[in-house]
Amino acid sequence: MTRLNSFCCRLSALILLLAVTMVMTAPVAAQSPHTEWDKLSPMQKGEIYLLRKKPAQALDTFRNIWRQEPHNHYAVRGIVRAYQVADQLDESQAFFQKFVNDNPEAAPAWYGLGYTYYQMGRYPESKVPLKRAVELDPNLALAWNALGAALTQLKDYETAVKYVKRAIGLHPSEVMFFRNLKMIYQRKGTPQEFENEYRYHLKSGNTAVAKQYGLVMAQNFRQKSFSEYAGGNQRKAIELTREMLQVYMEINHITGVVAAHFSLGLLLEEAGALEEAHSEYREVLKINPNHLQAREKIRALEEKITDPIFLISF
C-alpha cells in the first residue's frame, strides 16, 4: 500500500467515524425529549444548519436570536453567512440597508451591511458601514475584525493589523481573529511576525493570548503536515508534527498534546521507527490512561519488537 493510499484509508476511517457519531447523536422521533439536539443553544443549532447547507433554517434561527438579543453580533454574522450559503447576498444587502435606514443607530446592523459587502467582494464599499458600526459601538469586535479583513484586501496592511489587534483586545478568546492576523502578516510578506508575537506573549506570561496564537500556529503545522504526507514527504510530515506537539506543550493544551503524540506515533510506526512510535503511544497513555487506540497500538507493537525492554505488561 502506498503512503497516499494509507493516508486515504485513515482519512476514510475518520470520515466514517464522524458519520457514525453524527447518526448516533442526531435527533430522531424515537428518542426522549432530552435529545442531544435539544441540549444545543440556538446559536449552535444555527451553526449546524449552516454546516448541513440548510440556509433557510439557519436564517430563521439567527434572525430569531437577533430579535431576542439585539446586541448579539454573532447572530448578525450568522444571518449574513446564511444568505451567503443560499447565494442570496443581494437580499442580505437589501435587508440590512433597510434596517439601518429605519434604525440608523443600530451598530450591529451597520456591521451586517459592511460584512455583507465584504462577502460580496466589494471591499471599498464595506469600509463605510463597518466604520459606522465601530463609531456607534467601539466594543464591536467583529466589526473591527471585518474592517481589518477588508483593508487587507485593499493592501492597507498596517491599518489592518491595528484593527484586528483592536478586535483581539476586546475579545482575546476568539481564535478567528488570530487566524485573520496571521493571514494579514502572510499577505504583508512578514509571516514571522506572528510567531514573534506568540513568543513575546508566552515569555511575558500572557498565557490567554499566547494560547490563541499557539492554537493557530499548531493548526497551521497540522495542515502542512497533512499536505506533506499526502505528497509523499513522510520525513517532513514527522518534523511538522513534532513542531505542532511542541507548540501544544508550550501552551499546555492537553487535548492537542494527546492528539499530537498519537499522530506522531502513527507516522513513526509507518516509517518503521517502531521504538519511537512505541514511546509516543506511551506518552499518550501517561496523559490519558483510557486512550484505547494507544493501548491497542502498544500491544500490536510489542508483538513486533523483540527487545525485552519493550515487553511491558499493561
TrEMBL record:
TPR repeats, residue ranges: 107-140, 141-174, 258-291
Keyword annotations from UniProtKB, A to Z: Repeat, Signal, TPR repeat
Residue stretches spanning the membrane: none
Signal sequence segment: 1-29
UniProt cross-references to InterPro entries, sorted A to Z: CellSynth/LPSAsmb/PSIAsmb, TPR-like_helical_dom_sf, TPR_2, TPR_rpt
Gene3D superfamilies registered for this protein in UniProt: Tetratricopeptide repeat domain
Keyword Signal: yes
Protein name: Uncharacterized protein
Organism: Nitrospina gracilis (strain 3/211)
